[in-house]
Amino acid sequence: MYILYGGDFTRATLVQWVLEEGKIEYELRKIDIQTGEHRSADFLAINPAGLVPVLITPDGDALYEVAALMLYLADQHQLTDLAPPSTDRDWGLFLSTVFYIAADIQSEMKRFHFPHRFSLRREDNAGIQDLAKSLVLSRLNVMNTRLAKRGPYVLGTRFSLADFYLIFWVAYLDREGVCAQLPSIARLYDLVRSRPTALPYLEETERTSDAYAEMMRKSPGGVIA
Ligand SMILES: N[C@@H](CCC(=O)N[C@@H](CS)C(=O)NCC(=O)O)C(=O)O
To answer: How far, in Å, CA of 114 to CA of 32, rounded?
Structure first.
């Protein structure tokens, strides 16, 4: 059986969704990043990077990086409704998009959520967060253009985990503002939301996102050190 180390306010939700979609047996072990449990000796022994999610495979290997975990599970369990196999014509576009989200969108979301880690002076935090937001928006605009050309999903008429992955990060930004500016992203947001299996995870992400935004308002010096 798989073990997923995840918890509230984390992207482990994405892996949990894939596990549930694939009806794959797993145990969820919650790591509380608000109290710093991800930096405990016990957790660092599992992932020296001190980050979640971590997936322990039935063979006992510890795997990291949310995008890799989703792709790995889809491949190992032939979840072709979520990810085209490498022999599929859509594989290249699928892979390009997943890497784009992981490298160029997700990384800026880190700066958006932890601006204090990128600033030397507390008074710069808000500006750094604004800059991160504008960079994410410009990258979402790229996705909007691609979706307008060949949508409504990342792979045209076919849903894949890349759609949920993208919308997950929109839910963590200012989703109403993003959807008002980027119509093809807004359409994709509604399509993902209309999927009964995705809805509870997206709703949970929306609640978490609102709660985190509130915590940031109350702690402009940084929510998690
Ligand atoms: N590149 C990693 C980043 C993982 C990551 O940053 N996870 C966050 C939770 S969503 C975390 O553990 N944050 C704790 C911290 O940054 O101190 C991935 O995509 O899986």
So the answer is: 16
Choice from 5, 8, 11, 106 to test ligand 1 binding pocket (greatest atom count within 8 A of CB): 11
Instruction: Sketch out the chain's domains with CATH numbers.
Output: 2-76 (3.40.30.10), 91-218 (1.20.1050.10)
As a whole number of angstroms, the distance between CA 142 and CA 206 comes to: 23
Q: Which atom of ligand 1 is nearest to the CA of 225?
A: 17
Ligand 1 pocket, Cβ-based, cut-off 6 angstroms: 10-11, 33, 38, 51-52, 65-66, 106, 110, 224
Nearest CA to ligand 1 atom 6: 51
Atom of ligand 1 nearest to the CA of 65: 20
Specify the pTM.
0.97
Residue 27: Cβ-neighbour burial (10 angstroms; 0-12, 13-18, 19+): exposed
User: What is the mean pLDDT of the segment spanning 160-176?
Assistant: 97
Per-residue pLDDT at 164 exceeds 90: yes
- The answer to whether the CB of 28 falls within 8 A of the CB of 4 is yes
Which residue's CA is the nearest one to ligand 1's atom 16?
51
Tell me: the pLDDT tens digits for 94-147?
A: 999 999 999 999 999 999 999 999 999 999 999 999 999 999 999 999 999 999
Atom number in ligand 1 closest to CA 12: 10
pLDDT at 81: 97
